Automatic annotation (TrEMBL):
Enzyme active site: E59 (proton donor)
Alphabetically ordered keywords of this record: Hydrolase, Metal-binding, Multifunctional enzyme, NADP, Oxidoreductase, Riboflavin biosynthesis, Zinc
Binding site for Zn(2+): H57, C85, C94
Taxonomic placement: Bacteria, Pseudomonadati, Pseudomonadota, Gammaproteobacteria, Moraxellales
InterPro entries linked to this entry: APOBEC/CMP_deaminase_Zn-bd, CMP_dCMP_dom, Cytidine_deaminase-like, DHFR-like_dom_sf, Eubact_RibD, RibDG_C, Riboflavin_Biosynth_HTPR
Residues involved in NADP(+) binding: A164, W180, D210, G284, A285, R286, L287, S288, A289, A290
PANTHER family (alphabetical): 2,5-DIAMINO-6-RIBOSYLAMINO-4(3H)-PYRIMIDINONE 5'-PHOSPHATE REDUCTASE, DIHYDROFOLATE REDUCTASE FAMILY PROTEIN (AFU_ORTHOLOGUE AFUA_8G06820)
Protein name, per record: Riboflavin biosynthesis protein RibD
Enzyme Commission numbers on file: 3.5.4.26, 1.1.1.193
């Protein structure tokens, strides 16, 4: 295997394949989002992405696209954001489809960490005489599937924790009043986070105080909402205040899990039992603090409103630290404006 023996336009075409893959971001789970672009003589002749588990993979759609347009793919280069599969899952192996199509070279962003694949797709292509280069735009492509990669490697989900806060880090008034601190556009953006998540975790306190629906309902996601698998709702209820069927929006749904054990066990269970690889925490200050303190948050997403709520308002995280050396450190990953608010992504 050659590791990223890059040819002049590899990054350009892989970027197109990554763009394809993003189109499946809300709908493919538990499968990864994957894109493929086929290039012959400097021309894109076919492109495709994996839309949904059970449907064909990206490579098959890209080959089909080329054939539909009457294009020849013999000797062409296929750019795939994930190693083509070698196993028969819900669909036949993509490595075989590429071999049969007489593709000449395959450029791959990342090896598929799924133990059923994990290099065997590459080996199969090479055994058929196809040139394989791995590592083209690997970081950019990895952004597509942080949950899938983490779960395959560690049997733990990728955890995003979202907070909407004021400039001084407050999330509600002392009375609990919090509607609304951030603007409409920021609240709309949360729909994207939910739609990307296989599970949404909240606490019984939030359910009782706010009665949230935690539903995916935006028309602005660019896909038919009916195609998005409904995220599993998890309500952490250690003190057993609630029951399924109670008169709160999330408890009237049999898709909801009431959880009474520790959160580490919950996260492991979400991967093993429910194939939930991307999870979103939308909770109050105490449960959010528990996730942070137990080092279970991969990504902290802050919607920061340009207002000050004062020191009697509620803090983002309800826990105490005695020494500066014990602080919970994050690194700023990206900064964007959303309407009048800031959208900040921090990672561990
Ligand atoms: C590819 N191209 O577009 C995707 C791949 O059950 P299946 O048949 O859909 O297989 C799912 C597995 O295939 C998934 O866990 C991952 O390892 C791989 N996904 N592979 O060649 C694709 N989506
Ligand atoms: Zn495949």
């Amino acid at each position: 295997m050659n590791t990223a023996i890059m040819q002049a336009d590899d990054a350009h075409y892989m970027t197109l394949a990554i763009k394809q893959a993003w189109q499946g971001i809300y709908t493919t789970r538990p499968n990864p989002a994957v894109g493929c672009v086929i290039v012959k003589d400097g021309m894109v002749v076919g492109q495709g992405f994996h839309p949904k588990a059970g449907q064909p993979h990206a490579e098959v759609f890209a080959l089909q696209d080329a054939y539909n347009k009457g294009c020849d793919v013999v000797g062409a280069t296929a750019y795939v954001t994930l190693e083509p599969c070698s196993h028969t899952g819900r669909t036949p192996p993509c490595a075989d489809a590429l071999i049969e199509a007489k593709i000449g070279r395959v450029a791959i962003a990342n090896v598929d960490p799924n133990p059923q694949v994990a290099g065997s797709g590459i080996a199969k292509l090479q055994a058929a005489g196809i040139t394989v280069d791995v590592g083209v735009c690997s970081d950019e492509a990895a952004e597509l599937n942080r949950g899938f990669f983490k779960a395959m490697q560690w049997q733990m989900p990728y955890v995003r924790l979202k907070v909407a806060a004021s400039l001084d880090g407050r999330t509600a008034m002392a009375s609990g009043e919090s509607k609304w601190i951030t603007g409409e556009q920021a609240r709309e953006d949360v729909q994207k986070l939910r739609a990307r998540s296989a599970a949404i975790i909240t606490g019984s306190g939030t359910v009782i105080a706010d009665n949230p629906a935690l539903s995916v309902r935006s028309q602005l996601l660019g896909v038919d909402v009916a195609q998005i698998p409904t995220p599993k709702i998890v309500v952490i209820d250690r003190s057993q205040k609630l029951s399924i069927g109670d008169d709160f929006q999330v408890l009237r749904d049999d898709n909801t899990l009431l959880w009474r054990q520790d959160i580490l066990t919950l996260l492991k269970t979400l991967v093993q039992k429910y194939q939930c690889y991307d999870v979103l925490v939308e909770a109050g200050a105490r449960l959010s603090a528990a996730f942070i303190q137990q080092n279970l948050v991969d990504e902290l997403i802050v919607y920061q409103s340009p207002c000050i709520l004062g020191s009697s308002a509620r803090a983002m995280f309800d826990f105490n630290i005695d020494n500066l050396s014990e602080r919970q450190q994050f690194w700023l990953q990206s900064v964007n404006h959303i309407g009048r608010d800031l959208h900040l992504i921090y990672r561990r």
